[in-house]
Amino acid sequence: AVAGLNVFLTLTVGIFSAGIIGIVSGDLTILTFGQSVYNGFVGMNEVFFLSLLMGGLSNMVTKQGGIDWLLNKIKSFIKGEKSAQFGIAALTAAADMATANNTVAIIVCGPITKSISEEYKVDPRKTASILDIVSCIFQGAIPYGAQILVAGSLAAAAGYTVGPMDIIPLLWYQGLLVVTMIASFFLPFADGCMKKDPWNWEHD
Predict the structure, then answer these.
(1) What confidence score (pLDDT) does residue 5 get?
(2) Half-sphere exposure of residue 70, counting CA atoms within 13 Å on the CB side?
(3) Alpha-carbon torsion 83, 86, 88, 94, what sign?
(4) Distance (Å, rounded) from C-alpha 133 to C-alpha 124?
(5) Quick one: which of 135, 89, 80 has its CA closest to 113?
(6) pLDDT at 178 over 90
(7) Average pLDDT rounded to a whole number, residues 47-67
(8) Are 59 and 51 in contact (CB under 8 A)?
(9) Which residue in 93, 4, 107 sits closest to 48, CA to CA?
(10) How confident is the model over 44-51, as a mean pLDDT?
(11) How crowded is residue 72: how many other Cβ atoms within 10 Å of its Cβ?
(12) Which of 15, 96, 174, 200 could form a disulfide with 138 if both were Cys (CB 3.0 to 4.6 A apart)?
């Protein structure tokens, strides 16, 4: 709840700050600022409805036993806490590649990763980080994802002919995220904050 409130406040402050700066500099009027905000809401409709659809579909799959089946398949490869983290990462990556939307991937994987986290005692805070990081890595790296397509269109607007496969080898940020995330599975420094405040499994 606190994280959601922080995001809401940050976005609200950002929107109004941008509007004030635009109005003061003369680039916007109150009417054009309102129009820009409206266009932003309209631009999110696709993600909003897709998230609703995938959330409902995920619930139907859960009710029909699909989550349990997938969970058993994943658990057959998991032997302990470290492999559980790799399993969570692999599941999230597969979901993001299938849906091409990191928000939807997190919604779909949420119930499964929670179960894995509880059984193999992977701190839920770390599980949430893995979900977020892996979905962002693949969302920004798949050639049919919005980020790569937008980058290609911006390059085309600047007069360059750039395809997705020309961009992917230059994704240093995603590469560094992969290395850092895998390192966090094995190096103790990554768990420093969590060791100071261990997760209370009894009270979840």
Answers:
(1) 61
(2) 23
(3) negative
(4) 14
(5) 89
(6) yes
(7) 71
(8) no
(9) 107
(10) 69
(11) 9
(12) 96
- d(CA 109, CA 117) in angstroms, rounded, equals 12
Q: What is the pTM of this model?
A: 0.70
Tell me the one-letter amino acid at 178: V
Task: Tell the residue number behind the tokens 């360059």, with chain if given.
Answer: 160
What is the rounded distance in angstroms from the CA atom of residue 162 to the CA atom of residue 167?
7
Task: Cite the beta strand spans of 1-117 per DSSP E.
Answer: none
Burial 113-144 (b: 16+ CB within 10 A, else e): beebbeebebbeebbbebbebbbbbbbbbbee
**Contact in structure between 81 and 120 (CB atoms under 8 Å):** yes
Helices (H) and strands (E) in the chain, counts: 11, 0
DSSP 121-134: T--HHHHHHHHHHH
Q: Which two tokens stand for residue 202?
A: 């009894």
Distance CA 170, CA 175 (A): 9
- pLDDT tens readout for residues 134-157: 998 998 888 877 788 778 877 887
Residue type, 158: A
Close Cβ partners of 47 (under 8 Å, ≥ 6 residues apart): 101, 103
Distance of CA 65 to the CA centre of its chain: 25
The reported pLDDT for the residue numbered 1 is 46
